[in-house]
Design a protein that fits this description.
143 residues, mainly alpha, 2 domains, 5 helices, 76% helix, globular
């Protein structure tokens, strides 16, 4: 239950983050804002590691599969695209589309066990759940 509460908290933070990134992008430009967000986040993460809050070992970087480094590339795309979408359609519609995209993709990742994760088979009920979410999104976004 704690893990789900933490996930919900991350969703709350994502809505604020997207809004803040959108405002920064309007002030300095989308790509420039994306760059600044990554610099600030990197400095914070480094600081947390330096004060001993890290739980791993950066010396093990060479042992990580090559594709795990693509998260940084994806992060640039995510921040840029979220800020772009929110500035055009608003926070609620963009967040709704983001959540639908996340859930659909997460179901694929789970089903196929990509990236070394334990496979969790797709089921009829998961498909129905995604369709119900899509229907709810349509209701939320319809005027």
């Amino acid at each position: 239950m704690l893990a789900l509460l933490l996930a919900a908290l991350s969703g709350l933070l994502m809505a604020f983050q997207g809004s803040l990134n959108t405002a920064l992008g309007k002030a300095v430009g989308l790509l420039e804002g994306t760059f600044v967000v990554h610099i600030v986040g990197s400095v914070l993460a480094l600081g947390l590691i330096l004060i001993g809050l890290g739980q791993g070992n950066l010396g093990d970087l060479a042992h990580a599969p090559w594709y795990t480094y693509l998260g940084g590339v994806l992060s640039v795309g995510i921040i840029y695209l979220v800020a772009s979408a929110m500035s055009k359609v608003g926070v609620a519609p963009a967040t709704t589309a983001i959540i639908l995209g996340q859930v659909f993709t997460a179901a694929l990742v789970d089903h196929f066990g990509w990236f070394g994760l334990e496979p969790i088979p797709f089921s009829l009920w998961k498909g129905v759940g995604i369709l119900l979410m899509a229907g709810g999104a349509w209701l939320l976004l319809s005027r």
